[in-house]
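Appendix B, Record 12. Input sequence as logged:
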Amino acid sequence: MARRAVHSALAAPASYRHTEAGVEFPVTVRHRGKIEEVGTSGNNYARLLASQDYIIFDAEELEREGLTPRAKGRVEIDMDGTILVFVLEAAEPITGPVDRPWRATQAKAKAV
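Logged structural output:
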């Protein structure tokens, strides 16, 4: 299955924690950034762009661990000594049997 191969190849080890539970769960996730045009300047010479971060969980892993991500949960991804921190905002529509995408906001990165 192509999506499983993509997730396996591009996923990074991470941890997920929801503020209410306080328990940290090891997960593998993908990060995706998307730039969208949100308008143009008054003279149409410049486009206004906004970026949006997405954290993509593996559905099978979530089910196996009995984990349900929730809004305001935190995902921390270790990228070679720098911890990227994302706060989940809202679940995106499910696009297939593998991906469980969440819109997220990047918080301040931490050094290890």
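Residues 2-111 form a domain with the Thrombin, subunit H fold (CATH 2.40.10).
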